[in-house]
Write a structure and sequence with these properties.
With about 300 residues, this protein is α/β, with parallel strands linked by helices. It has nine helices and 14 strands. The chain has helices spanning about 40-50, 90-100, 105-120, 135-145, 165-180, 190-195, 215-220, 265-270, 285-295, and strands at about 1-15, 15-25, 30-35, 55-60, 65, 75-80, 150-155, 185, 200-205, 210-215, 225-230, 240-250, 250-255, 275-280.
């Protein structure tokens, strides 16, 4: 079932068309990647979903009903540009933001206690935001974003400012939120995170959707017939289209390209006539490769 539908949205600013007929469907209980270069239109779309600005034309639906300002209470939004009040104390501010989202003070205190202990930040309660590092402040804002258990969560570059350990912590929490029933829009430039987290993506470039679909299916569709094999003995390199080769402690590792029209079975058969195989796997392009290829070489949709 679709939680969010964006239908043919257009938005223009002073002669610049920020979104040009953008449409996407976000299923319930998924992580949906919103990708694109700087200036592509991602932030404008997020602002429309949050009712911060309105489209010039087109429609947005939440749970099958036209999105209104009242629906924003069902959305948790972590913007790329963080918005905490630097002079306020952490606990005071977290309570304030929770109550803005409709929680009672008692509900908020109980939920904050749980999350502050989970993130091991209970000792920050009386610190001012300006005393925190960027990553520390990020943890606080992440908690205030998810605290009221919204149906839809929007994370815009959520790992900015985090070291690898805390970025991994946040990834685990995002997946746990999905497992708990949340639907998540994840806007990022970090393509490795897309492969780890996202079920589906839309890639926006120059105000239009230029690629859209399931991550695994997109990677398979962009396959180049490249394989990584490990053999017991050397291959006759002239028999195959060898991209790279190296000797390892357990044999010889090759990256090969299949020839036009050649099936996996034919390639495997050829390999087995020369050596015992320890492994054989297809090397799919990364989302980073696909991102770069799509925005630099492919014609844009009309």
């Amino acid at each position: 079932m679709k939680l969010l539908e964006v239908k043919n949205v257009v938005k223009q600013f002073s002669g610049h068309r920020a979104l040009d007929g953008v449409s996407l469907d976000i299923p319930e209980n998924t992580v949906y990647g919103l990708l694109g270069p700087n200036g592509a239109g991602k932030t404008t779309l997020i602002r429309i979903i949050n009712c911060i600005t309105a489209p010039d034309s087109g429609e947005v639906f939440l749970n099958g009903k036209r999105l209104t300002a009242e629906d924003v209470r069902h959305i948790g939004y972590l913007p790329e540009e963080r918005g905490l009040y630097k002079k306020m104390k952490v606990g005071e501010q977290a309570l304030y933001l929770a109550q803005l989202k409709g929680m009672t003070k008692q509900e908020a205190l109980m939920a904050l206690k749980y999350w502050f202990e989970k993130f091991e930040i209970q000792y920050w309660w009386n610190k001012k935001i300006e005393e925190l590092s960027k990553g520390m402040a990020q943890k606080v804002q992440f908690i205030t974003t998810i605290l009221h258990k919204p149906k839809l969560l929007i994370f815009d570059e959520p790992f900015s400012g985090f070291d690898p350990v805390n970025a991994d912590l946040l990834k685990r929490e995002i997946l746990a939120l999905k497992d708990g029933g949340a639907t998540i829009i994840f806007s990022t430039h970090n393509m490795s995170s897309v492969e780890e987290l996202c079920d589906n993506i839309s890639l926006i470039d120059k105000s239009k959707i230029v690629l859209q679909g399931n991550v695994a299916e997109i990677r398979a569709a962009h396959a180049t017939g490249t394989y990584r094999v490990v053999t017991k003995t050397n291959l006759h390199a002239d028999s195959f289209d060898v991209q790279s080769e190296k000797e390892t402690h357990h044999g010889f590792e090759y990256v090969l390209k299949s020839r036009a029209g050649e099936s996996n079975n034919v390639l495997l058969g050829s390999l087995m006539t020369q050596s015992e195989l320890f492994s054989f796997e297809e090397v799919l392009p990364t989302m980073n490769d696909i991102f770069i290829e799509t925005v630099t070489t492919k014609p844009k949709q009309s």
